[in-house]
Amino acid sequence: MHFEENEIYHIYNRGNQKQPIFHSRDNYLYFLKKVKKYIVPRCILLNWTLMPNHFHFLVKASNVSVKQVTNSKIPSQFLTEGIRQLLSSYTKGINNEFGLKGNLFQQKTKAKCTSLETKINNGNVILDYSTIAFHYIHQNPWKAGLVSRIEDWEFSSFRDYCGFRKGNLCNMKVGFEELNIDRETIYDDSYNTIDPDDLKIIF
Fold this sequence. Notes:
alpha+beta, Alpha-Beta Plaits, two-stranded antiparallel sheet, 7 helices, 6 strands, globular
């Protein structure tokens, strides 16, 4: 993974061989504590969703994100190292809990720059793939049939953006500004159908 300052990235990974990575509510909460420790200080977290066997983050890379880790044998940026620490420490905790060994996650976490994919015509934004990624991430549990409404899924930032909960992981001020999300229509906009061809761009 390589990050450029001020660009927006869709970051995601799943369980090794698609195995579950969360087995209980406590597992989800434990992972979020790790996110707060290892991810939030190293970037601007715009939104997130945790699913039973994978996760999604939308982040804006900051000047901290792109700093080089100086005490590492392998050249790495601060955000890349934070993701590694997140997955490593969570895996260790889950393996200890269930008496397991080995990798919990797939080897390579993906980070797709969505802000570079924005299409502009005559100065007007036609398709903003960062905004598409934002809504896709929130729609994930609903589309997967885990809940009948997006807001019924506890483990995403959707409730925070719609004012149903006061979460503090995301920088929603930057989210609203960067993604041109309307505070008045975000709930209805979140249920809009996303063109399958547009989804190919964010992965």
